[in-house]
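Schema walk-through. Below, the input block comes first and the output block second. Nothing else is stored per chain. Lengths vary across the set, and this one has 98 residues.
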Amino acid sequence: MAAARKDGVIVLSLIVIMLVLVTGCGGGESTPGTAPDLIGLEQSEAVAMAEDAGLQVEIEHRTSAIAPSGTVIEQSPPGGTPVEAGTTLTLVVSTGKE
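--- output ---
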C-alpha cells in the first residue's frame, strides 16, 4: 500500500509541475501581450482597459480643435504593438479647444 501512495504522490507532483509550466505561474515574470487600441475612447474607459491588460498608464493632456475634452487622441506604444505586462502606456487626452 505504501508503494501505491508513493506513486500517487509522484503523479500528483508531476501534474502540479506541468500546470505551473503551462500556465506560467512562475511568479515575477511578465506575460507578453498586445497594447489595446484606445484612441477615441474616454479617458476613464481607456485607463480601465489598459490596466485590465496589465499595463501601467501615464496621462498627458493636449488641446484639440476636433476631439472632445476627455477623449484619448494619441497613445504610445500604438495599439497592436507587442508589450510585456507592466509596460507603461502613455495616453494623450484632449482638453478640447484652446
